[in-house]
Amino acid sequence: MLQSRYTESTIIEAGIDEAGRGCLAGPVYAAAVVLPDDYRNSIINDSKALNERIREKIRLEIEKEAISWSVASVSAEIIDEINILQASIRAMHLAIQGLNIIPELLLIDGNRFTPYPNIIHKCIVKGDGLYMSIAAASILAKTHRDEFMTRLSETFPHYKWNQNKGYPTAQHREAINRHGITSWHRKTFHSSNQLSMNL
Fold it and tell me: Which of 13, 40, 111, 170 has a Cα at 20 to 30 A from 67?
């Protein structure tokens, strides 16, 4: 089972994580979650380790049981302007801002973060597999983003975003080769390990 807290003190901890950083299309999402100190759930884990049905089930429980939670996103257009790392951090800041209480400690999944005003933070590599609040944030960020991309797929069915959620699958790349890109695609994502787009 994941650890429930980073510290033994009673300070208010918020777990923070993002989803969609490696996608070719769509916004990047981030979530912030404050769980009760005594909250336990043996199923909660890094969102990537759970199937879609379980993620959706746990999402409802997190949203019900959390002391506070918030989800935010940053558009593909902004990603192109400021780069994906900065856009991910901006989404995290927006999610923190959306909480209805002020945390005293931010637990950030990963190793890069810009300090949020007046709140200390700890960056934890693979934190979504270590701490329950970060894992909960990863689940909310992932499920909210997947829901958005599934709805968007109804307008842009060629790209099968209901299946690939904007990630660089062979299916997605082939659709871009056939139909070009949309306003939802990240135009700066043209490196060799993702996709070359003639813009």
Answer: 111
Pick the CATH number of 13-179 from 3.30.420.10, 3.40.50.720, 2.70.70.10, 3.40.50.300: 3.30.420.10
Give per-residue pLDDT as tens, 16-73.
999 999 999 999 999 999 999 888 888 887 667 788 899 999 999 999 999 999 999 9
**Tens digit of each residue's pLDDT (9 = 90 or more) over 66-107:** 999 999 999 999 999 999 999 999 999 999 999 999 999 999
Can you tell me the distance from the alpha carbon of 181 to that of 188, in angstroms, rounded to the nearest whole number?
Answer: 12
pTM for the whole structure: 0.92
How many helices and strands (H and E) does the chain possess? 6, 5
Cα(149)–Cα(1) distance, rounded to whole angstroms?
31
